[in-house]
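Friendly challenge for the regulars: who can give me the structure tokens for this chain first? No prize, just bragging rights.
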Amino acid sequence: MLFEVSSSLLMGGLVGYTYLQQSGTTSDAAKIQRICANSGLTVKEGGKTRTMQLLRKTRREWGVEYAYRIPLGLSVKDFENKIHVIQDGLNNKYAIFDITLADIKKLRPNKRIIQQIKQLLRKEVHKEIELTYDGLLKIRVYNDRLTEYVKYDDNLLAKCKGWQVPAGVSRHGWLFHDFEQFPHMIVAGATDKGKSVFLKNVITTLIDRKPDDVSFSLIDLKGGLAFARYRDCAQVRCVAKSPIEAVEALRNLQQSMNDKLDYLLEKGYEDMKEAKEDARNFIVIDEAADLSSFGETDKEMKKALVEAESIIKDIGRRGRAAGYRLIYATQYPTNETLPSQVRQNVSARVCFKLETARASMAVLDETGAEELPATKGRAIYRTADGQTTIQTPYISNDYIQRKIEPHINIRAREESQDGVNKGTATDRTGRGDSLIIEETELS
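First reply, four minutes later:
Bragging rights claimed.
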């Protein structure tokens, strides 16, 4: 009896603390207004300082949504630029522990109640927020973090339709990128943040889902290691490992694209879809910054890189109708290595954590990627339909190997009379690398 009374008193005390905490001056609604005021999100009008006005709050299973009217003279962009300030302020510790009524309701009397309470007191709280605007500023405050790990498996693969690949999971469920709707993509992110894993996700998905229709030209300027396991797949036309090889591959791609466009024009078709042709050619460039002519001093190399840049821009501009899809990936995005002509023609972005706000601006045209957590696979996914934070799926090398194994076709390299592989080229360091280009393409 004494134990039951003590447990009831303790639970009652927790409930009382939680009520005072949520209804007092430490409420999130009050903190948000205070944070915004302290960070300069106010206007002067008629000699008075005006700030945001809370109109309503709505409790959800995942947290709370606050709706504010913002003062005239401020835009939602002003608040988006301060999103990290608002989130950090909400996570500023103001109590030894932070619990909610939902946590209290989960306690089960007489079932190791003391252990349950101890676990509750050790609960780590990290609130994450999202902003939207529809005439009112909506600030969603989530009680729990977005998942930090999601595995790529057969169930996820089965959900893909047409030319979709799994982009990642958001607060509102899975997002799938459709390369027919948004044909070109920029993928950016600092080292070891998930960029290469995402590229392998795309390649593996399309080989498995569209084995008879997809072809890949892979340009890996980090030595070819990231794409090495795909080089003998029937769907892979070429693998280039150096800038010189990349230029050669891009020349061939541009010529085949021109041939396809001439064919469509001759037949009177607007694009491959109208021609009822299913073939799609993906050009995946990993570490595209190495193809930038900016800062190159060698005249011959600079000339080659300028040509490469021109072809990439051309594919981005004219490739969609011919069934060509550009995936431009880099860990060093700048306005010089990510030309404006590429950004203008590429409407889809997957941006992992970057080191600086300047790098984020180069990819997303706004800051924010530098504020992402260090979680591997966390990214900002942006298309013309909007922008959201996602956790991209992790695809293991064992899983990749299992999926591409049926498509591996070992091809003997054509040799010249002196026994040297045709297509051998020299990179910037003078080393010889072998480029294999298939003469046939899917049609």
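Confidence is low (pLDDT under 50) at residues 1-6, 14-25, 413-434, 436-443. The CA atoms of residues 215 and 368 lie 34 Å apart. Your move, everyone else.
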